[in-house]
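Recall from the previous chapter that SMILES is a line notation for molecules. Here it describes zinc ion.
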Amino acid sequence: MRLYNTLSRRIEELPEPPGPIRMYFCGPTVYQRAHIGNARPFALGMWLRAWLRHRGYEATLVHNITDINDKIYDAAPGASAELAERATQWYLEDTRDLGLGMPDALPKATDAVPAIVAFIEKLVDAGHAYEAGGDVYFGVATDPGYGRLSRQKVEHMEPEEASALKRAPQDFALWKATKPGEDTSWDSPWGHGRPGWHIECSVMAEEAFGPVFEIHGGGLDLVFPHHENELAQSLALGHDFARIWMHNGLLMRGGEKMSKSLGNDMTIRGVVDGWGREVALMLLLSGQWRKPLDFNEDTLVQARERVDGFRNVFHAPSEPVGEWAAFEVALDEDFNTPGALAVMHGWRDHELLRRAFALFGLESLAEVEQAPAELVELAERRRDARVAHDFGEADRLRDELAAAGWEVRDVAEEPGFRLVRRP
Ligand SMILES: [Zn+2]
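With both inputs in hand, we obtain:
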C-alpha cells in the first residue's frame, strides 16, 4: 500500500500489515453547520481506515473537534461555549448520516487544555517559546528547519497575525491571553487565556497516539500555517510526530474554493437531505483525493447517474464478470478511488459489488426496494396509457408516482417498467 506524502513530495510505501496505522485527521472548527468541504477529509479518513483494515492493518482514526477558536468567539459573542456545543452536535449528526460509521475517537480541544498547558511549558523550558504580555509565542528562529512542510523560506511567509509582542513576525501563538469579549478562558502559568489553534492539534494527536504516528490528514489549505506549525512544535520537543502527511484537494464550485466566506457554501446536511447520502459519497469517491473536486449541481447529477447505474446492476441477474484484484491494485496505489470505481463499473457480479460497496458505505445500492402494490398499479396504468398513445394520462401518472417518491422507467423486459426509489 502506497500513499503520497506532502512532506517528502513522494508516494511512499506503508509499513507491512498489521502496522499499526494510526491516523489523525483535522476536524472542523465548530461554529456553524459544517459545509460539504468538511465531508471530504472525514470520508477520506473513514474510507482509508476501512481499506487498511481490509488489507490486514490495525488502523485507527482520530478526528478532532476544534471547539476553541477565534471564529467561535466572533460568531457568538457572549455565548461561544453554547454555540460550540450545539455545532459539535450538528457535526456529529451530519457526519453520522453519511453512513460511514464514526472515527475511533473525536477529541475536543476543551478537554485537552491541561495537556496543552503542559506541552507549552515544555516548549518554554526548552527555549523554543517565550511569554509576552500574557501570550506565549513559538520562536520560529529556534527551528532551523521551519518551513519544511510547506517548503517556504521564513522570510517569504505571510505572518498569521501582527503583534508588537512577537520577536519575529512569523512567530505564532501557542497561548493567547483573554481579550475583551471572549467569554471562555482557562488558567495557566501565564494568566487567563486559551490555546492557539495549532498547539491544540499537536497535543490532541499526541494524547491519542504518543509522540509518533503514521498519518496526519487534512485539507490542502491546512499545510500552512496549521500543519507547518504542528510539526515545528512537536519536533521542537524531539518528537517525530506524523510520518506521512496527507492533504486532500479542496472542493471547488465553478473553479473557486468552496467556503462560507465566499457565500457559495453547501452544507453536509443540505446535500445529504437534498440528494441522498449515496450521491454525495459517489461524488466524493469520483475524485482522486489529492486533486480539487468540482462539487456543483452538474457533478451531483453525474454522481446520481453513477449511483443509478450501480443500482441497475441489481435489477439484472448476477454474472460472474470481473475480478477483485484490479480493484485492490487501484486502492493500493495512492488510494485511487476513481480507478476503483472504474473497475466496479465493469462488474456484473453482485457479490463482488457488495464487497466493494461495504468498504465505501454504499451497501444500500445493492438493495432493490419493492414498490408498494398501489404504486405498481399506477405504473401498470401508465404503461397501458402509453400503449394506447394517451401520453397526457401517462405523464400525469408518472408525476403522481414521482410525488410519491418513485421514478418509473421504461424497460424492454416484463412488465415493461421498473420502479426506482428516489432519495
Ligand atoms: Zn488540526
